[in-house]
Amino acid sequence: MSDKLSPSTKGRKILPVGHYRGLGVWNVAFLFFLYMPIAVLIFYSFNANRMVMLWGGFSFKWYIKAFNNTAIQDAVINSLIVAFFATVLSTAIATVGALVLARGGNFRGKTMSLGLITLPLMVPEIVTAVAMLIFFAAIGLNWGLGNVIIAHVTFCIPFAFMPIRARLEGMDTTLEQASRDLYASEWETFRFITVPLLMPGIIAGAMLAFVISMDDFIITLMVSGAGSTTLPVYIYSMIRRGLSPEINAVSTLLLLFSITIVTAYWVVSKKTQTKTVH
Amino acid sequence: MSSWLPTNPSSRRWLGLAPTYLVIGIFMLFPMIIMGTYSFMEANPYGGVKPVFSTAAYIQLAWEYDLDNTLIFNPGYLKIIWRSIELSVMATVICLIFGFPVAYYITLQPENRRNFYIYLITIPFWTNLLIRTFAWIIILGRNGVIELPLLSLGIIEKSLGMMYSDGAIAIGLTYSYLPLMVLPIYASLEKLDFRLLEAASDLYASRLAIMTKIVIPLSKPGIIAGCILVFIPCLGAFIAPNLLGGGKKLMLGSLVQFQFASARNWPFGSALSMLMLAVVVIVLILYARGAKKSTAGEKATES
After folding, report:
1. Which of A95, A267, B17, B216 has the fewest CB atoms within 10 Å of its CB?
2. Looking at the partner chain, which of B115, B120, B126 has a beta carbon nearest the beta carbon of A211?
């Protein structure tokens, strides 16, 4: 990097202004701290031994066991159902909300609306969980997985909202104006100009909502009844029953799933960034 | 023309925002109001509440009834609240010390490398918190990744007992929310004008002075935002104290969960949640005030 440009005196490099010795090492140590637990978890999922920490040779047997575990299968199906509905509904709600807040100009109640939309981010998760539990109990709503879906839609809204709003604010409005000048109706302009341009933001928002829903644990733990266990809640019950490499195997799969989606999100948002520059 | 849409811009706005208001209003804001009223009711031993006004839940925070029905001071819950604050502050400070140099290092990198580092730092944030905390049981636990080699090499003779301690909880909390510290600091450092540093250097400022007098003051908004983003979830944390503290070293979050899951004291759980909300509101008000002051200050210096 810039080290090559800096002159050397007596073999000791003079760092350019603003650079400090040891920063690079610190950064590597930081990334090690961040990824070491994940690596350890994945490593031990291939342990043939029953005891998680005693290495007994390489094996896929815990993955096979996890795949054949019907309780895990049910939990995965529940998680996917919840995440599907939470993603579709929260993205739709966030999209119309973002259109108003990014394009509606200044109006009374704008700050309040922004505050409401980001409320789930501000309140500690356990408080949200408890409030929803009380609410469902108070009105006697007992829809099983339906309760979980309602909770997930609610806290996924701000996550879907953020990328959509960012995209709207960075979008050029001249195409929409041109379309209107050429006698396209308001609906046609929206359908054929605004929506396609906004699509990368909507996809990014949907991906974040999906990951957040798949990963949620505390709120789901509190509002889910018997029969509506999602994968993280099931993993928690496994941990409480005692350590087993099977937990590592399921966890590894869930981790890789999230990492794949976030990486896809990253690629999508990076592509759209370069597109807007050119 | 889409005739079903109202033409009046104001009604359109509210039509677009209606779903948000309905969902977050009904399923989050309204439940929080119910929670507030529940905190002023009597507990029903079978779960739920008896609709009778009572301040027992708040009294229970610091006092208990003796056998002869006199109130005596009981600091048990206050200790848990204090420990939650202590551990949250500790985790926030460790995150700051750990995270600031990294955020600064990233700003020194060329553009594409910066994006890659930010990607690496955000990845753990989007993965399951429960699983990431579980990994620390394998690392810190009895015969875990740290202990086993030390034991087999004979450096230590018995288990270090790292698990189920405040230290383990602090590590878990730090690990959980580290990305939330780095990202806002990076966001404010990214806008840093490096010509300022060169000017300071030309005027014989030392490296230390450049850091403490220019870089740190200019990244203050990011530092404060990062501290808030780490502190608030730490205060309500449930997973780290439960898995790494063994459920015995309670924190506010796990204490609240306990009131609903096992103790069946909903009013007390609600009162604890209200307390947590009050702390969050105070922190956010202080933050908003500070932000207002600093923008007012900037405007004053500009003119």
Report:
1. A267
2. B126
pLDDT in tens, A83-111: 999 999 999 999 999 999 988 888 888 88
Mark whether B133 and B221 lie in a shared domain: yes
Contact yes or no for A26 and B101 at CB 8 A: yes
Q: Which residue of A has its CA nearest to B144?
A: A53
Q: Does B141 touch chain A (CB under 8 A)?
A: yes
- Interface with chain B: mutation pick from A134, A223, A272, highest number of B CBs within 10 Å: A134
Q: Which residues lie closer than 8 Å to B229 by C-beta, 6 or more apart?
A: B177, B180, B181, B184
CATH number at residue B129: 1.10.3720.10
- What total of structural domains would you count in chain B? 2
Q: Which residues contact B284 (CB under 8 A, 6 or more apart)?
A: A122, B228
pLDDT computed for residue B284 by the predictor: 87
> Is the CB of A211 inside 8 Å of chain B's CB atoms?
yes
| Average pLDDT over every residue of B169-182 | 94
Report for A122-126, A262-266, B41-45: range of highest mean pLDDT: A122-126
- Examine the domain organization and report whether B83 and B226 are in the same domain: yes
Identify all chain B residues contacting A261, using CB atoms and an 8 Å cutoff.
126
Which of A221, A216, A234, A223 has its CA nearest to residue A90? A216
Q: Give the pair of three-digit tokens for residue A170.
A: 């960075």
B211/A217 CB distance under 8 A: no
Per the DSSP assignment, residues forming a β-bridge with B65 are: B71
Domain membership of residue B134 (yes or no) is: yes
Whether B13 and chain A come into contact, CB under 8 Å, resolves to yes
User: How is residue A207 written in tokens?
Assistant: 């991906």
Q: What is the ipTM of this complex?
A: 0.88
Identify whether B21 is part of a domain: yes
The structure's pTM equals 0.88
In the stretch 198-227 of chain B, residues with CB closer than 8 A to chain A read 198, 201, 207, 210-211, 215
Query: Domain check: are B12 and B114 in the same one?
Result: no
- Both tokens of B258, joined, read 């306990």
Is residue A215 a contact partner of residue B127, using CB atoms and an 8 Å limit?
Answer: yes
Strand, helix or coil for residue A9 = strand
Q: Within a domain: residue B244?
A: yes
Determine, yes or no, domain membership for B164. yes
Comparing alpha-carbon positions, the chain A residue that sits nearest to B284 is A122
Residues B156 and B86 reside in one and the same domain: yes
CB contact under 8 A, B16 and A125: no
B20 and B87 fall within a common domain: no
Q: How far is A37 from chain B (nearest CA, A)?
A: 5
Locate the chain B residue with the closest alpha carbon to A147: B27
Instruction: Find the distance separating the first CA and the last CA of chain B, reported in whole Å.
Output: 48
Write down all domains in chain A, each with its CATH number in brackets. 69-277 (1.10.3720.10)
Domain match, B101 and B244 both? yes
B99 and B178 assigned to the same domain: yes
A155 contacts on B by Cβ (under 8 Å):
28
Helices (H), B39-165: 56-59, 76-107, 111-126, 129-140, 147-152
Does residue B13 sit in the same domain as residue B82? Answer: no
Residue pLDDT, tens place only, A28-78: 999 999 999 999 999 989 988 887 777 788 888 889 988 899 999 999 999
Domain limits for position B217: 78-264
